[in-house]
User: Fold these one by one.
Assistant:
Number 1:
Amino acid sequence: MKTVADVMTNMPIVVRVPGNRNDAINLMVRNKLTGLPVVRESDGQLMGIVSRRDVFRNVSEDQLSLIMKKNPIVISPEATIEDAARIFHEKRIHRLPVVENGKLVGIITPTDLIREIRHMRTSRTSEDAIRLKCVTCYEGDPLSYVVAAMRISDVSAMPVLDGHGKLSGIITDRDLFVDQTKDLEVMREMGLDDTCSDLAGYRNVLPLFYMATHEDELPENALVKSYMVPNPTTVFMKTPLNEVAKVMDVNDFGQIPVHGDKDELVGMIYDVDVLVALIGDENE
């Protein structure tokens, strides 16, 4: 079995405290990241983890030390990737700082393990991995409803159903405000300049910021159908997890809708769910 050291990112990009939210946003945008380890400026000691969702759950707070998650779960470089998979799966987190002798030496994410699973042989399927109930929306729902539903449910993606209850699309927090992704005023609020407007990381970060700070400005007549991705990639309940991992890795997906035997939507499978291919069923 491979170890964490075999698959982790060495010398990860970090944000430092004291610092503010714009320091974190800039690093995430420019490096196409959705989260960062936080270290102390004076000695490089790991102090926490900050993700884009942490930033935008606390939009009224500017100080990074008050936004970040303190005392994060960490892992040793000598731990197995099975150990890491179990933590991701049980805690449903997406970043594990790798610490050796008290120092941050790397970081590992579910994506690192997804790349291992896609090359494995496994008898496990989507059906074995789905854990959470699926939160859906209707293609005719107002966009304002979906924004609120995402916040209440703490999800970043929702399958979209048509009038017959069939899957017609998927909407993610990346899709919601594509029209605003060149809004220079919003960019300046994030501490960015217009050179960032073409960066992929910018689109990953802006939607949540806009949702949190401009919800009262959502277009009243905007419907989900106008913002969703139609005909999304899907997998079936019997799709082997190595195939699911391949689809996620190739397309940079964090979740995929799952169809049943009669082509009905049965749920969503997330990257941390797929990791059961490494650790087995928790009931075993």
Number 2:
Amino acid sequence: MRGFSKAIIAGNITRDPELRSTPNGASVCSFSVAVNRVYRDSNGEQKEEVSFIDCSAWGKLGEMIGQYAKKGSGVLVSGRLSQRTWEDKNGGGKRSRVEIVVEDFNFTGSARDNNSGASSSRNDDTSSNIPDDIPEGEIDLSDVPF
């Protein structure tokens, strides 16, 4: 049987994405997404837990995320799970990390929801991380290859 992995998360970027290039020139963007979950415990008390999910995006998608995404941006991310292992630099043995290798990325919410402020509270700042060069009006879908 062939394996399959797919992860879909929605949350907020925890820090400004880091865009870099590999030695062979490939672009890769690394960022982390905070995913909140609200639930009730056995006593009926409402609780909240936060998971921090590491993500990496390669090529043009990574470049786009590095250019437009900011800390606090609401995002919807989907991709495959990837586990990396390495030797600890201090001789502490093997280390491991699971991350999402991004295949699809979307901003969520309105421009006001995606402000670049460090706090999660809304304010009257009109600056936004939504790009200004998105065309207005109808988009011709005849060039889409599917």
Number 3:
Amino acid sequence: MAKSRFGLDQKKFNKGSKIYTKGDKADFAYYVHAGKVNIYSPGGLLLGQIGEGEIFGERGPSLDESRSITAEAHTNCILYPISEKTLKEKISKTDPVVRAILRSLLMRLTDINAKSEDFWRNLNVMTSLSEKSD
């Protein structure tokens, strides 16, 4: 891992590179210093795009779960990994109400990602059936 001029570890990913895949161990969240990252459901649905100044990959380390989605560099990227330990320390030091809100939002994110993929899959089935009946 390269060091930035600030002494922080950084990881560089070329456009199209996988940052992590569903099922991978979730050791880090990532801060996007430069570039854009696409987030995909297990079935390949584009769930969103993360840009400079944003964080992604926080769900797994925060909830002690493996990766539930795939992250891929949409452009060349410079990312700063945030270790599971650091993430949990920061969360543990925050107000209990904020911790509860964060956990609730992370659980809802998991749920909405699954529902989005189910909707997308059902829409594709319905579209393919209506195309055949025309």
